[in-house]
Each structure stands twice: as structure tokens, then as C-alpha cells.
Amino acid sequence: MIDDELDVTDVPFADRLDDFYAPSVSLARLKAPPSPPTPADLLLRALEPPPIKIRHIPVLDLLRPAYRRLAALDE
Amino acid sequence: MRTTTRSGAGSAGQPVAVLVLPSSGRGPVPSPELGTDEVVKNPRLARWRVPLLPYTPEEFDAIPGPSVRYFGIVGEFARDLVRRGRILPWLAGDEARWRPVLTGADARRFRELAVAMPPVCRAVQEGAGQEEGRSGKVLLGALTELVDAAARRGFPERLIGAYRPGRKAALADRWLLALTDADPRLDEVEPDEAAALTAALTAWFAAARGLGGPVRVEFRLVEPVGDGDWRVEFGLCSAEEPDVRVPASRVWAGADFPGAPDPERVLRAGLNRAVRLYPDLDRALREPRPTGMRVDTRGAFAFLRHSAPLLEAAGYGVRLPPWVGRTRLGLKMTTRSRPGPPNMGLRETVDFRMDLAVGDQVIGEAELAELARLKVPLVRVRGSWVELDDRQLKAALRAVEDRRVTERTVGDVIREVVLGGAEELPLVEVDADGLLGDLLSGETERRLRPVPTPPTLDGALRPYQERGLAWLAFLSGLGLGGILADDMGLGKTITTLSLLLAEREDGARPPATLLVCPMSLINNWQKEAARFAPSLRLYIHHGASRHRDEDLASAVAAADLVVTTYGTALRDLGALARQGWERVVCDEAQAIKNSAARQAQAVRQIRARTKLALTGTPVENHLAELWSIMEFCNPGLLGPARAFRYRYQEPIETRRDENAMSALRRATGPFVLRRLKTDKTIISDLPDKQEMKVWCTLTPEQARLYQAVVAEMMGRIEGSDGIERRGNVLAAMTRLKQVCNHPAHLLKDGSRLDGRSGKLARLEELAEEIVEEGDKALVFTQYAEFGTMLQPYLEARLDRPVLWLHGGLSKRRRDELVDRFQGDDEPMIFLLSLRAAGTGLNLTAANHVIHVDRWWNPAVENQATDRAFRIGQTRNVQVRKFICVGTLEERVDEMIERKLALADSVVGTGEDWLADLSADQLRDLFRLGPEAVR
Fold first, then answer.
1. pLDDT tens-digit profile of B354-368?
2. Would you call B276 and A45 a contact, using CB atoms and an 8 Å cutoff?
3. In total, how many domains does chain B have?
4. Is the pLDDT of residue B228 over 50?
5. Is there a single domain that holds both residue B169 and residue B264?
6. Which Pfam families match (chain B) (predicted)?
7. What's the pLDDT at B2?
8. Could you give the CA distance from residue B509 to residue B507 in angstroms, rounded to a whole number?
9. Cβ–Cβ contacts within 10 Å for residue B747, how many?
10. Do A20 and B79 lie within an 8 Å CB cutoff?
């Protein structure tokens, strides 16, 4: 299932037979500029921690240092 | 993707899917990328069982189609989400997975991608009753897989050290391990344990999704009145329309808020969550109905420097006073030239003063001492609030110390301006006169006296070209390099040739200029130099017969201009670097945009008195490229790449930081001349229609095919007469023109297109420049099969729409294409069949016309050109006609030029008149000249 917030109305195939293999906007236009840098652990910091523990350690304490290193992904 | 929809299995156990595809009676309609010219008038939808062939990019030597490239963009979105930590772990059945958290701007981005999805991406039929997949669902599935893969790459190590739980360990322990393991599966999952873990993770995920709701809590920093305190005030605002807001006091009083059934609850919950990012908020939350909180100056500074960016990034509304990030302490540099000695260029000494400034106000030493004494990070300077933390204060005190230096050389001042001060104390204003004033104004070209057209130029420079020549001569005189980045078609070639002529006007013989360009442009330089600057001694250093060792040194010594390619420059680097050059010019300088690429490193190693880069690409849009090209022109001037990235590139590309943008303009302005064809002063200089010939070469493969066709067809022509002979001549012409277009056009074998045709290489370069400049172009070909080949190829290269209008289209489809081209503001290319679109259409959205092959009937070509150049056209139109040198294309073009002067009627009937030529004349016409292949 997909949330309403993410759902879109699709054009029926019958109306897209001429450009069935093409995106509805050009790929150059679809490419996004880079997102502004934010701390990669911001989401974890903004939320109440879940009641999950691993060997008595809150899962959040295990995830946060790992998340901080995500900003360097693919660099 | 890790999982694939499987709707069954083929005979050999091969997975298959059922796809819903546009079809004819014979089978699925070929996708345009296949390059077939099969036209299906009324396709219908039908289901097909299609075998699935998994492959990795490395094992596939082809250009991926738009649907695959679309998923490439989805993959970049997935990596971006992971980089920003917008993911949470999840238990999906018996698998430990990562999934995206899509809220706010990310949810909008998701919908944008879903709406754009090519229909074929959702053509897999998953159930018997279902015909068409839903793009949102398909996208979420793909994105989740890509996020999971990227996250596993981002977490190369276990999250909990060396601990490796056994099969009987708690589910949460094993789940955590599997989150970073190559295999996400968990064995022996107890339903009760799984339910408890899933419930916790579901609540966590729901809370994360709740952060990005349509109504959000807003924090507003309010300046003190008089000597009072700062305040942080609370309220609600709309995520979609930030101007729709209600202060907390009214929310507690029962005010409504659109989209929030219970505004009080939204406000209270949001404030309670925000305390995790803004701990000082805890103080305010002790009140039952908080509306805001007082903060002292330090608290206000901490809020705007630390908490506000975090809150904003987490999806809260944040409003700051308008001066934040704009008005800051900086340096103002003043220089004054000294009267007396002659112009010494960069070594000239000037009076120099550096002041501290806020905006346009200079701060004195006493004032700075008073600010330092206050020891607060937010101070009011002459009515304006300014951020002034410890680092800035120390830098300011150091700058005051340095003011003892009262003179500098012009070269030192330029370096200081380019460096732009320190991060904590940037250079915010420069006031210079004389030579420096001209150079640093960023309008050098307008302030200099134009250099008149050199008498040895066979032609006349337009006024803006004379200003460009003055700019080039000015920089060159100073020994500085520059980037001439005028829009395409404004005459960078003729201006550069004029510079060489001007330098030789009084009989001077400076060392040769080395010009490096893509192979596709060598002939253009040769032709343009011969046409406009015949007095320049030219040596083309390219091909197997090029000079080496002492012969090369002699050739260079005897030349004014040496032209070579990037490839040859790399191969002959040692020999070329040993010559003494006046200047190295890089044409199409985007070829050296990647500073680490070997050809960029090679041209940087060739020493010369000055350097010049020519490019039509707007360099300000590509900052890493700008650094690389500047590093070629003026080595070291912009500092190391890493410092440039930190100082300019990141702030501009990620935040559109205006301070960084103006600092970069100031730093590079003196060395970059870019005029747009839309500039008022340029438009008035330009003719309404500029016609240019674009000289192309053949690849060795094209040359071999060309000669084979000539040999075969001349035999047939000589063995025939009458109508048969006429038919053979026309067939020979057609086949030779096809070779000139592309080997695959002649062979019709569906083979790959890239790297096999000089004409196509030039077309690609031009098309890239045209769309980069935001323009639209009409590209005419007389061969429908060539257009069918070009359309998907160019679209894949450009990632921009490439429309294709030919005789096989219905009237409705033609009208759709024309409407899109005229109405859509996106840069694009419109490929047109000369026969199907040569008359009648109104395509004034184009300001470029390219005739990629020729009908050799000026009237027909002009009619086609007039699709763009007609009533309704408000811009200058550039018309380019492609001609392969050393082939029949060049010779027929010469004949037409000659005959045009005699009588239009002689050449007014297309190519038929050529059939009357004698065998010897035809042999001469078809002959392949040595200049055809480079």
C-alpha cells in the first residue's frame, strides 16, 4: 500500500501510446540539484527513541554514530 | 534491483514477466531506441510474456534507454536520502531492511518522479485482473530496494562491534546484524518477537512521517526593542504556503488553522518534539500554554547559528530577521595607482589600504576595540545588527594589525581579491582605480578602448568583437590568462585570429600560438584561418604525417598558429612542451573541465607566456569545471581545488549563497568574458540571420566506405547510359551522402552510432551547447531513416527532448509535436525531415537551424530555414550547414556557390543537374581528398 501523500494519478496507457518508453518530462529537467547539507543523524535526533535494545544498549545509541558517517557515502 | 516480479517461468526455467505493451498485429511496437523506421498507425495494448535477462552495467555495451536512465535518477535520489540519513530500519517479513522516510520536500520529489515515470516502467502485470501498474507503487518498491542497497554500502561495518548473535539469540540482536549483512534474511523468526519488534518500528516510522505534515510549528526570532530582550516566538504555519501562519497566542485562544482539525494538539506535540533539537525550549514548555520565550543576546546567537538550521532541516518553520547571513563584518580593499613610471603590468606598485566594513560602512579601530570589549556575538553597528563571534573578532583584530602594509604590486592585489579574504572575514568590497580598477571592475571589456579590426583581417569585426579583442589584448599584455566564454555564434574564432594578427601588425614575430581543439574542429580552424587571416602561417599538427623532433621545432618556429587536437597533445606532450609558445589556447575548453583527466593535465603542462580558454558553455553553472579551466588559464590563482570547493562551490551549489556568488564573480570576473547573444548591445550588432558553414571530417571507417562506394559506383556509371546512368549517378550521390552522415546510415545494420562519424560528433557538440544555453534548434535531414537513428541517440546524449517529425506521423501527432516545441520552455532539439517539414510549419521557438545533410537546392534549404526565421521570430537566428571537407559535399557546395553567382536556375532543381556531368567530372567530384580524414 502507498500513502495518499505519495500517490499520484496516472495517465492511462491508452493516452501514452506515442511515448510509451519516454518519461513525461525530460530527464535533464527531472534531475535534482544537490540537497542542502544536513546532519545525517538529524532524523534520529528529532524522534523519540524506539523501545528497542540490543544487549541492553538502546538501538538509537548504536545507530547514531553510524548515521553520522553516512554523509560521506560514495565520496 | 534485488527482487524481480516473476509471472512465471520459461521453458528452460528462465524467469518471465507478462508486460502490457503497445502492439501491432505482428508484435510489440519497437521502442524508438531500436532506431527502426517501422511506423504503426494505430497501436493497441496487448499482453506479452517476456523473458527476463538480468545484467549488470559492466556487461552491457550500449547506451541505456530513457526508462533505465530514469531509474538512474531514482538511484541518485536513493543515495541522497541515505546521505542525509532520511532512512529507518525495518522488519519486512523475515528480512531486515532499510526504507526511506519521505516527508516534506522528499515527498514532493517522490511525487515528481512518479508523475514522470515512463509508462513502460509500470507495464509489468502483477495480477490477472490488473492491466496497468501504479507509478507510485512501482516507484516506492524500486526506491526502497535502492535505498536498502545504498544503506548497506553506507554501513560497511557492523553496528555493534564484534558481537555476532547465534541463531537462538534475541530477534532484535539478529535483526541488527542483518541490517548490515549482505544477506538480509533472518532464520527462525518467532511470531511474537517479530510482532513486538514490528510494532516498535512501525510507531517509530509513523512518528518520522509525522514530522513532515502539512501544518508545522514555526519559530520566529524577534529583535529587541530598545534595550529589551530578544524573543523566540512560537506559532503554526502551512508547509505548502509559509505565509499562512497563526501565532501561538491565537492557537491557544481557539483559532482555526486550515488543514489542522486540532491546532492546539499539533502545536503542543510539535513543541514537545522540538525540544530534542532546541534544548533551551524546555524552559518555555514549563508553562501550560507557551507563546514564546525571552532569550539574551547569547541565546539569540545560539538560536540562529545552531538551533535554527537544525529545526529548519527537521521540517519546522523558522523565520529569522532579514539581515541574518547577509550583513556581516568583512574587509574593504582600496587601491590607488601612482603617477609616474610606465605601465609595468603585474609588477606595478599601487597604494593599498584594507579596512573593516559592515555593509558599505567602514569600521574604525576604536569602534572595533569597543565591539571586542562588549564580548557579545550579536552587536548593533550603526543601526544594523551584525553577527560577530570570537573567530570573526580575532580575524578582524589581525586584519587591523596587517594594515601597516600600505603598498602592493598589482599581481599581489589580484591574488588577494581572488582569494576573497578568509571565511570568517571575507573581502566584501574593492575600490580600485587605473589598471586594477579596469581589471577588477568585471567590466574590463567595456572600460577598455576597443582595438580596431587589424588591417590584415580579411573581414570586419563587429563592435562587440573589437571590445573582445581589446580584452584579450589587455590580459595578454599583462601575461594573464582568460576565458572567452561568449555565446556560440558570436565569433570566438575570428576574435582569436584577430588577436594573433594584431600582435603581428607592426612586423613583430612573437612565438607561435598553440591551439588545442577537439578533432571535429580542426578543419573549421583551418578554413576560418585561411578565409579571415590568410597572412597567418598555419601548421596542423595532427595525423600520422605530423612532424616530430627537429622537424616539429622547425615547423613551430616557422608558424604563427599551430593547431592540434586534445588527443595528439596528450600523445606528443613531451615534444610540444619543449617548444617555446607565446600562448596556448584550448578551444571547446569544456574538454578540460575535469581537472584530473589526462588531457586536462597534459595541456596544463605545456608552458606558454599566456593561456586562453574558449568555451560557449556557461562556466558559471559548472563550478568544478570553472576551477579546472581557470587552473589552466592562470595556474594557482583560485587556490587549491579543495579550498575552492569549500569557499565557493558548496555554498553556491547547495544553498545558492549570494555572498559566495558575488565573491566568486569578483574573483573570476577579471578573467572571464561572457557576452550573451540576447544582450542589448550584442543584438544590435548582429544580423537577424547568421549563416555559417560547419566543416566536418570523416572517420577512417567512413573514408574506407566512401572509397569503396566511389569505386563500385563509378564502375556502374561508366557501364551504363541514358536513364540507367542517370539513376546510377543519383544513387552514388545518395550513398556517398549517407557515408558522410554515418556508416550505419549506409549499412542500415542497426550498429552503434557513437564515435564513428565526424558529422555526428560535431552535431552532438553543437546540440549540447545549444541546450546548455537554454535554446532550441531545428535539425533538418533529407533522410527519414537517418532522423530515426538520430532521435533516440541524441535524446540519450542530451537528456533533453528530441522531437522527430517525419512523413509517417499522423496529422494529430505532428500538431502535438509542433505545439510542444513552440509551447514548452525547456531547451530541446526538433529533428525534421526536409520533405515532411520543409514548408508550412511555424517553429519560431527555435533560434538555431542546422542542415545536417544537404539537398543542394538553396531555395528548398531556405524554405526550411524559414520555419524559424519568419514573422514572430524575435531573436537572431543562427543557421549552420554541415559539409564534409574533401568529399563531394564540399565540391558540390563550391559549385553551387560559383553557379549561384551566375544563374539561380542552373542549380534550382536539386541534384538532378549533377547527373549530366561527364565521367571525369564525376570522378573529380567524388574524389576523396586527403584533408577529409583527420
1. 888 887 788 888 888
2. yes
3. 5
4. yes
5. no
6. DUF3670 (PF12419), Helicase_C (PF00271), SNF2-rel_dom (PF00176)
7. 31
8. 6
9. 12
10. no
